[in-house]
Amino acid sequence: MSPRADTVAGIQPPPTAPRSAPGWRAQRRRAYLLGLVPALAVLGAVTVAPAVYLLVTSLTPLRLVNPETAWDFSEPLRNYLSLLEDERFRNSVWIQVKLSVFTVGLQLLAGLGVAMLLNVRWKFLEAVRTTFLIPMVLPPIVVAIIWKVLYTPDISPIHHFLASIGHPQGAMITSPDWALWAIIIADVWEWFPFTMLMLLAALQIMPEEPLEAARIDGASAWQLFLLVILPLLRPTLLVAGLFRLIESIKAFPLIYILTDGGPGTVTEVTNYYAFLQAFNFSYLGFASAITVVMVAATFLLSWLIIRMVGLEVEVE
Amino acid sequence: MAERGARTRRGGLNRREFLGMAAGAGLLTAGGSRLARAATAPTRLAAAVGGAKPFAGVTINGAMFEHTFSAVLKEMVPEFEQRTGMKVNFELQAFPVYNQRADLELSTRGSAYDVLNITFIYSGRWIGAGWFTNLEEFIKDPNRTSPEWGADDFMGGALAVFKNKKGDRFGFPWLGEAQVATIARPDLIQRAGLKIPETYDELMKVLAAVHDKDGVKAYVAQKLHHWLWIHFLHGFGGNVFKDPPENLTPTLDTPQAIQAAEFYGNILRTYAPEGVLSYTDDQMVTAQVQGRANISMHSLPVEISLADPKKSKVYDKVAYVMVPAGPKGLFPGVASHGLGIPVGSRKKEAAWEFIKWALSKETIWRMVKERDYTSSCRPSVLNHPDFKKEMTKNGVDLVALATKVFEISEKGGYMKYRTVPVFPQVGDKINKAIEVVTTRQMSAEAAMKQAQAQAIADLKRAGVKIDS
Question: Which of these, A249, B21, B185, B230, has the minimum number of CB atoms within 10 Å of its CB?
Answer without folding.
Answer: B21
